[in-house]
Amino acid sequence: MPQRHSKNNNDLAFFTYDEKRKLGYGTQRERLGKDSIKPFDACCLCLKSFINPMSCQKGHVFCKECILQCLLSQKKDIQRKLAAHESQKKQEKEEEEEKLMLQKTRELEAFDQQNHGAVPQYNDRNQNRDKNGFHGANSVKVTSYEEEALRTMKAFWLPSATPEAPVKTEAPSTSTICPEGNEKLKMKSLFSIYLTEDNSEKKSSASPDKTYICPSCKVTLTNTRSLVALSSCGHVFCKKCADKFMAVDKVCLVCNKACKGRNLVNLEKGGTGFAGHGDNLLATDFKHLGSGSGLGLVRPAAMKI
């Protein structure tokens, strides 16, 4: 008796459910590990340990060199777009003036033809005329309007006369954008932050890497803790100490500089744009079949955290 090969049947005109599962189509979920998460002491641009860190008012931390270079490149790009927009406006103005001049010329020619008669005069008297006194179709004098129409004729079958869609440049925004939060960011709104390094004997003998602690409770700062920076002086504390002391006493515990509630900035930590942060890290992608091609297309789905 022959065996049943329903799952191995591959001569159908469509993919079966089992074939789709074997090819990896459908919703794919993967638990993100530690390597997929950005540490709290890493720059949001270069993803390396920050050097001379600076933070924006939304709590995104960058290296000083990285963020200044990013803002400078944005300003250069804005200047380039502004120059292109001004050039386009100048060109449109010139084209409008040319159209007005051409319209006045046509009106003058029409007025001149109306005053001197509709039948044009020709110097070639030896040429045969028809019974109405007009020349043949090939010998009719072409007006400037017809010349312009022939010159600007849009014929899609001729490569030289193929119409081109004009590319219009919109007026760009003159504001620089935060590369991480996509909100408006000015250079003067950035402030330097200072983390307290752990210089204890236990740490120096355990690991050569830098570790940072809260200057108040001496707890090691990691991605699992929420951090708060003071925009007035730049010192970084854990959120528990910031809410317990700075929010009440209105003074920094390190430099005794006065601070207000608006000076407390929650620092962002965790994801890099490809991963989130939290207790449940689960990346989800949906892979579906291409229409008529048999190829799989990946559509990123919303990440579940």
Automatic annotation (TrEMBL):
Residues 68-103 form a coiled coil. Residues 214-256 form the RING-type domain. Signal peptide: none annotated. GO terms for molecular function: ubiquitin protein ligase activity; zinc ion binding. SMART domains: RING. The keyword Nucleus applies. The keyword Phosphoprotein does not apply. One of its GO terms (cellular component) is nucleus. Pfam families: Rtf2 (PF04641), zf-NOSIP (PF15906). It is found in: Nucleus. Keywords: Coiled coil, Metal-binding, Nucleus, Zinc, Zinc-finger. PANTHER family: ENOS INTERACTING PROTEIN, NITRIC OXIDE SYNTHASE-INTERACTING PROTEIN. Belongs to the NOSIP family. This is RING-type domain-containing protein.
